[in-house]
Amino acid sequence: MKKKTQKQLDTFLEKLAERNPHQPEFQQAVKEVLQSVVPYIAQHEKYQDQALLERITEPERIITFRVVWQDDDGALHVNRGYRVQFNSAIGPYKGGIRFTPTVTPSVLKFLAFEQIFKNSLTGLPMGGGKGGSDFNPRDRSDSEVMRFCQAFMTELYRHIGPDTDIPAGDINVSAREIGYLYGQYKKIANVHQPVLTGKGLAYGGSKIRTEATGYGNVFFMREMLKRVGKEIEGTTAVVSGSGNVAQHTAEKWIALGGKVLAMSDSDGTIYDESGISQEKLEWIKDLKNNKRGRIKEYAKEFDAEFREGKKPWDIKSDVAFPCATQNEIEKKDAEKLVKNGCQALSEGANMPCTEAAMEVLRDSDILYAPGKASNAGGVAVSGLEISQNILRLSWSREEVEERLEKIMQEIHEKCLEYGIDDNGNADYVKGANIAGFVKVADAMIALGV
Ligand code: NDP
Ligand code: 2IT
Fold this sequence. Notes:
Layout: H1 3-19, H2 24-43, H3 52-56, E1 61-70, E2 76-87, E3 93-99, H4 105-121, E4 127-133, H5 142-156, E5 165-168, H6 175-189, H7 209-227, E6 236-239, H8 244-255, E7 259-265, E8 268-271, H9 278-290, H10 296-302, E9 305-308, E10 319-321, H11 331-339, E11 344-346, H12 355-363, E12 367-369, H13 371-374, H14 377-391, H15 397-419, H16 428-447
Parallel strand pairs: 3-4, 3-5, 6-7, 6-10, 10-11, 11-12
Antiparallel strand pairs: 1-2, 2-4, 7-8, 8-9
NADPH dihydro-nicotinamide-adenine-dinucleotide phosphate binds next to helix 8.
């Protein structure tokens, strides 16, 4: 980066930090995007003198609300609900809802900010948004989760709509929660509308939406490997997490001939040297999605190793798929991956690498896919779910999966269009950031202020 451009970026980030104090995740996400975008703007007059950086880093609207609900013993609880409606230049706000105690305005702003560029990359007309609550569903009964979802939607419903804002799932929000949320929306609004995605197949959901993020993640990895003449067949992988994205990343990896050595949850990692087969994966799905159990139970059932409190990054494997949460790969983890000869890393989670970890990966020979490109398959199929709802029809599994594959290939191509360096190497971080930015910036300029 030229000295003058670096100075401009530093000054902007200083002001951003002053304007958004105590929001480290948001500042981290903005810095990551602007490191690619600011030099690009410096070379393209069209994007100058438009206050684009100031505008694109300021959410259009943030809604905060009180959520009061009753537990099974009759006690009342108060949680905080949020929806960050960050940018609607290219379409209605779109992005997931997350229920976990680590939800803060900073986390939701980083996620909504990432979502702007991710949604742009899908090629579908979706703006960026994200929402959630600090509610912890762990150890809560079904009826408690239902009452919480109903209370959450009772306020959220007035802020969303098929042409305004269409939430979906994210951490701890999947089929069960989307069902309760949609049920409450329908009761209040008295309409069936594509106002949430990730719906059940019985009431308007799309085939493959459950699988889409994980499958898309593997499709993106396949494109990266293909470009350098490598194949999935026989290649080993470690996957963090054992929720929606992790399960379906593992599933597609296994289906394409790869081997999965490890998965994890917030308690630790299971290491199965013989590989997690599809049959064992079905057992994990039942454990996590129905029994809501802990991953360590896998070790007992299949005589594998359980590494308490450990992440999977020190297990030697050909590729890595972080699919749990933000900042789960620290500098030392990235160094370990490089040292162990890991060849490629594709992010299923949003911003799973710390800034320092990212630097290590980008300075290495590892093929590195940032989440806004590699995990975009989930929101892409959400977009396809909206299209099917509007058309009032339902596409087959094959049709949706084919479209997903094509979208992931196109995202890969867009990353290359803006991300090839002087040596012909692919910088997917730069490519994804610039390609995502250009469409949104063009729309913002065209729409005026
Ligand atoms: P799930 O709730 O289904 O699964 C999350 C998994 O990550 C669980 O195994 C959970 O463990 C683990 N986990 C969560 N928090 C932590 C933590 N602090 N430390 C260690 N492990 C943790 O969520 P998803 O699979 O939907 O989401 C995973 C990631 O993928 C998130 O970053 C999300 O934003 C991203 N993403 C999701 C998309 C989707 O369509 N669902 C789309 C694109 C990205 P435990 O069981 O112990 O809680
Ligand atoms: O991070 C994400 O892209 C998601 N959680 C999916 C969002 C969506 O609207 O499907």
